[in-house]
Design goal:
The protein has 182 residues and is of the alpha/beta class. It has a single domain (12-158), classed as 3-Layer(aba) Sandwich (Rossmann fold), CATH 3.40.50.2020. It contains five helices and eight strands; from the N terminus they run E-H-E-H-E-H-E-H-E-E-E-H-E. The protein has helices spanning 12-29, 45-60, 78-81, 112-124, 167-170; strands at 2-10, 36-41, 66-69, 100-108, 129-137, 149-153, 160-165, 174-181. Helix 1 packs across helix 2.
Length: 182
């Protein structure tokens, strides 16, 4: 599917400002950084989690454990993905049992990616709590999942596509809205 960009809705500076606010909210909601683990969902959630970890380290002078999870084999639509799905690394830095796990992703849409991520996390242990941080909440949920920390709420039509671009994968950091064309 071809992506046709319409507008930049967040610049790099605005994305960083939103992540800074999210990092402060995570610290506040968890009464500090004790017991925290940040897990980014592959692909773009991983560099976003690293940015949040850097901000928390600057604010609290503590390095929070940081990991990555790939939900490919936990997807409920794996049979429709194709014969050779793209699989990335899952790296969980420590036992998640009794930890406050902060799951980080770029865009929250139907909730299916988050459900798959929670299933995977539970295979690694039983966290005390799982909280969700996203850069963009665009609505249109198909499952009863809501974020705890949101960079920006962006109401969209189902025809629209929101992309969070990050330097590590896209060469720039920004959030754009557009449409897909087959």
């Amino acid at each position: 599917m071809e992506f046709i960009q319409k507008n930049v809705i967040m610049t790099e500076k605005e994305v960083h400002r939103a992540l800074t606010r999210v990092a402060h909210e995570i610290i506040e909601a968890n009464r500090g950084t004790d017991n925290l683990i940040l897990l980014g969902i592959q692909r773009r959630g991983v560099p976003l989690a690293a940015l949040i970890a850097d901000i928390i380290e600057k604010v609290e002078n503590v390095k929070v454990p940081l990991g990555a999870i790939d939900i490919t084999f936990y997807r409920d639509d794996l049979s429709t993905v194709g014969p050779a799905p793209r699989v990335a690394a899952t790296e969980v830095p420590m036992d998640v049992t009794d930890k406050n796990v902060i799951l980080i992703d770029d865009v929250l849409y139907t909730g299916r990616t988050v459900r798959a991520a929670m299933d995977e996390i539970m295979d690694w242990g039983r966290p005390k709590i799982i909280q969700l941080a996203v850069v963009i909440d665009r609505g249109h949920r198909e499952l009863p999942i809501r974020p705890d920390f949101v960079g920006k709420n962006v109401p969209t039509s189902q025809k629209e596509i929101i992309k969070v671009r990050v330097k590590e994968h896209d060469g720039c950091t920004e959030v754009v809205v557009g449409e897909g064309r087959a």
